C-alpha cells in the first residue's frame, strides 16, 4: 500500500495541521493528532481524485523519516492509483481500456472511481490488459 509521509504541526489556534511534501494538495486539520491524521486519509484520497480528474500522474511517496507520521492509502485505492499511473504512462485512455476489457465505458469509470468498491478480479484484468500483474504480500 502507498504510505505518504506527512508533517504534523500544532497550529496557532491549538489544532493540528497536516501537510505533505509529496502531495501539496493534501491539507487536513484536527483537534488532536489522531483526528488530524484520520482527516488526512480523507484529504489524501480527495487529492488523488484531483489527479485522476486532471489526468496527472500521481507522485509516489518519498521515504518516511523518523520525525514524520505517515498516511496510508487502502489496498484498493493503491491498486487504482497505480493503475491510473500505468494508463497515463502507456498513454491509454479509458475508452481504450474499455475496448481491451470488452466492457462499456461506465464500467471503466467505476473502476477508476476511488470511492467505488471494485472487485479485485476486475482490477487484475485491467492490469493484465496493460501487461502488468498485481503482487500482494503480507507483512
UniProtKB/TrEMBL annotation:
InterPro entries (UniProt xref): HicB-like (IPR031807), TTHA1013/TTHA0281-like (IPR035069)
Domain of life, source organism: Bacteria
Gene3D superfamilies named in the record: 3.30.160.250
All copies of domain HicB-like antitoxin of toxin-antitoxin system, residue ranges: 4-126
Protein name: Type II toxin-antitoxin system HicB family antitoxin
Source species: Pelistega suis
